[in-house]
């Protein structure tokens, strides 16, 4: 029953995020492109597949317990959302987790996978909205900075009040044992709040910085290729959107 409730919660949160992304895309975005459904779905799937593969590569961190590992799967998702819009970014976030689960399964009773999706959206959605409200390099940088900050804040509170207790419940690991894993890498960690402060916060800050820098370096080179592809598509189909 608890697993079923958790699945319903995940689906409900996903639906809410998609709804919010749709509203932002409709009323805030200034550069909405009228892609064909085939083009939109294909590119979203391609970026999601790359993100799903990158999600398999996890880098352990010296300052955090073993269940917090850095992956760079947000990079293709951010490029996708800068190219196609907020909704595509959210969908790519979900698809990358599904792909990862199909390839590797879960080691965290699905809690870590849901956390990756939700916290990833906390970065991707603000970054996308700010960028598409006024497209340009400056907006991309501001969006990534704001997205990283939002991810750090929301991710920290969400870990403290929902994800860690839920992981303890579904994985069957007492909270004291989870805190103990943190204490082994940092003696200052002796409670949920210190675990969040000394592990979750720096983890999200590090991820935000690394992902943002690499995304900017890659998108600057990939963007012209994508736009040339758009031009060829428009000439072929006669679509001026």
Give the structure's gist in a few sentences.
With 241 residues, the chain is mainly α. It has helices at 2-27, 37-55, 74-84, 86-104, 111-133, 137-171, 175-185, 192-237, and strands at 59-60, 69-70.
Please state the structural category: mainly alpha
Tally of contiguous helical segments? 8
Instruction: Please give the share of residues in helix.
Output: over 70%
| Percent of sequence in beta strands | under 5%
Order of helices and strands: HHEEHHHHHH
Radius of gyration: 19 Å
Strand order, main sheet: write it out: 1-2
Shape, principal axes of CA atoms: globular
Low-pLDDT runs of 5+ residues are none
Number of beta strands: 2
N- to C-terminal separation?
48 Å
Rounded mean pLDDT score:
91
How many strands, which pairing sense, and closed or not: the largest β-sheet?
Answer: 2 strands, antiparallel
